[in-house]
C-alpha cells in the first residue's frame, strides 16, 4: 500500500480495488497520465494538480484516465465560468452561513451500510427572504469540498435525501430550469463525488413537473439513482435503514438538529451575527431567478408531460404513494 492509500480501511481498500479498479502499484502512473493531459487544455487554469487531488477524480471515474481528466477539466472550467459564485466560498459568507444554519445541507453522523455519507435537505426550510438558491448551492459545494478530503468518502461516496414536505408552489417558483441546470452542472458534471442515490420524499406534483423539465440534462447513470418515494417511507427504508435516519424521515433517531453540520464548519463563528446583503452578490441571478409563474410554467409545457400541470387532488394523492422511480445499478 502506498501513501496514497493511507486513510483507507482494509475493507475500503478492497472495495476500491474491486469497484474502482484502483491498483496501489500503478496509482502514481495513473495520476501522471491524467496530469500529462493538462497540456491539451491551455484555456483552463488548473489551480491544483497534486497527487492526492487528482486521485479523487480517478476514483470518481473508476480510474478511466480520459474520464477522470474530463471531470478535472470541468471542475476548473465550471469555476472559471462562474467566478462570482466562488468568491468568498467560506462558511462565514453571510448567504452560505444562513443556508447552513437552516440545514442546507444537513449531514447525518452515521454512515449507511455501504459507508456512504448521508446528506439531507428539508426543502421547506428555505427562507427566500434571507438567501438565494445560489447560496444553497454554494453551501452544498463548500460542504462537499470539506467532506471529499476524506479518502473513505472518495471511495464510498454520498447519498442525498430531499424531503419536500410543506414546500410551497411559491417556493418552487424560484427553482427555474436555469438555476437547476447550474446545480446539475456543478454537482453531476464538475465535482469528483460518487452519488449512490438521490431520494425524493413527500414531493408535490409540481416537483414532478420540474423533474420532467431537468431530466434531459441528467446522465443515464444519474437518472438510475433517482428515487421518487412520495409519502411511502417504507420504500425509502428498503434502501436506507431507519436505524440511522431521523424521525422526520420515519427513522429511529431523534429529530434532526439543523445546526449540526453548520456548527462543524463554522465552529465559534456559528453564533456570530452576520448581515446578508443580496445586492452585494454579483452573479447574474436576475436571469436565474426569473419567476416561474403559472404563465412561465405554461411556456414549459412543451417539455413537460402533457397534463402534468392540471393534476387533480386524486392524481396528486396517487403520486404521493408511488414506488421508487428507478432502481440502483
From TrEMBL:
GO biological process, one term: lysosome organization
Region annotated Disordered, chain positions: 310-329
UniProt-annotated location(s): Cytoplasmic vesicle, Clathrin-coated vesicle; Early endosome membrane; Golgi apparatus, trans-Golgi network membrane
Biased composition (Basic and acidic residues): 310-319
Gene Ontology CC entries for this record: clathrin-coated vesicle; early endosome membrane; trans-Golgi network
Alphabetized PROSITE patterns for the sequence: CRAL_TRIO
Domain CRAL-TRIO span(s) in chain numbering: 96-257
Membrane topology term: Peripheral membrane protein
GO molecular-function terms, A-Z: phosphatidylinositol bisphosphate binding
UniProt keyword terms in alphabetical order: Cytoplasmic vesicle, Endosome, Golgi apparatus, Lipid-binding, Membrane
Top-rank taxon: Eukaryota
Alphabetized InterPro entries for the sequence: CRAL-TRIO_dom, CRAL-TRIO_dom_sf, CRAL/TRIO_N_dom, CRAL/TRIO_N_dom_sf
Role played: Required for normal morphology of late endosomes and/or lysosomes in neurons. Binds phosphatidylinositol 3,5-bisphosphate (PtdIns(3,5)P2).
Protein's recorded name: Clavesin-2
Organism, as annotated: Salmo trutta (Brown trout)
Amino acid at each position: 500500500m502506498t501513501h496514497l492509500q493511507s486513510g483507507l480501511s482494509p475493507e475500503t481498500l478492497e472495495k476500491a480495488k474491486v469497484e474502482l479498479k484502483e491498483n496501489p502499484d500503478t496509482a502514481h502512473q495513473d495520476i501522471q497520465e491524467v496530469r500529462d493531459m493538462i497540456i491539451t487544455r491551455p484555456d483552463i487554469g488548473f489551480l491544483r494538480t497534486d497527487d492526492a487531488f487528482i486521485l479523487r477524480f480517478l476514483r470518481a471515474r473508476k480510474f478511466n484516465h480520459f474520464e477522470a481528466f474530463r471531470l478535472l477539466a470541468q471542475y476548473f472550467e465550471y469555476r472559471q465560468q462562474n467566478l462570482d459564485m466562488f468568491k468568498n466560498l467560506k462558511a462565514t459568507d453571510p448567504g452560505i452561513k444562513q443556508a447552513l444554519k437552516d440545514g442546507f445541507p444537513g449531514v447525518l453522523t452515521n454512515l449507511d451500510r455501504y459507508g456512504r455519507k448521508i446528506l439531507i435537505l428539508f426543502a421547506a426550510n428555505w427562507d427566500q427572504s434571507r438567501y438565494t438558491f445560489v447560496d444553497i448551492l454554494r453551501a452544498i459545494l463548500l460542504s462537499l469540498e470539506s467532506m471529499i478530503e476524506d479518502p473513505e468518502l472518495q471511495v464510498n461516496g454520498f447519498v442525498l435525501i430531499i424531503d419536500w414536505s410543506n414546500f410551497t408552489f411559491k417556493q418552487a417558483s424560484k427553482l427555474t430550469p436555469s438555476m437547476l441546470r447550474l446545480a446539475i452542472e456543478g454537482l453531476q458534471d464538475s465535482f469528483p463525488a460518487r452519488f449512490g442515490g438521490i431520494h425524493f420524499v413527500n414531493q408535490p406534483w409540481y416537483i414532478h413537473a420540474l423533474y420532467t423539465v431537468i431530466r434531459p440534462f441528467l446522465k443515464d447513470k444519474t437518472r438510475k439513482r433517482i428515487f421518487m418515494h412520495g409519502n411511502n417511507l417504507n420504500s425509502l427504508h428498503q434502501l436506507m435503514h431507519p436505524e440511522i435516519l431521523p424521525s422526520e424521515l420515519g427513522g429511529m433517531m431523534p429529530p434532526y438538529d439543523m445546526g449540526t453540520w453548520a456548527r462543524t464548519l463554522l465552529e465559534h463563528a456559528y453564533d456570530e451575527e452576520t448581515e446578508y446583503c443580496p445586492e452585494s452578490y454579483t452573479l447574474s441571478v436576475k436571469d436565474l431567478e426569473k419567476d416561474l409563474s403559472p404563465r412561465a410554467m405554461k411556456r414549459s409545457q412543451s417539455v413537460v408531460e402533457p397534463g402534468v400541470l392540471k393534476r387533480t387532488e386524486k392524481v396528486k394523492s396517487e403520486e404521493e404513494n408511488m414506488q421508487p422511480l428507478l432502481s440502483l445499478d
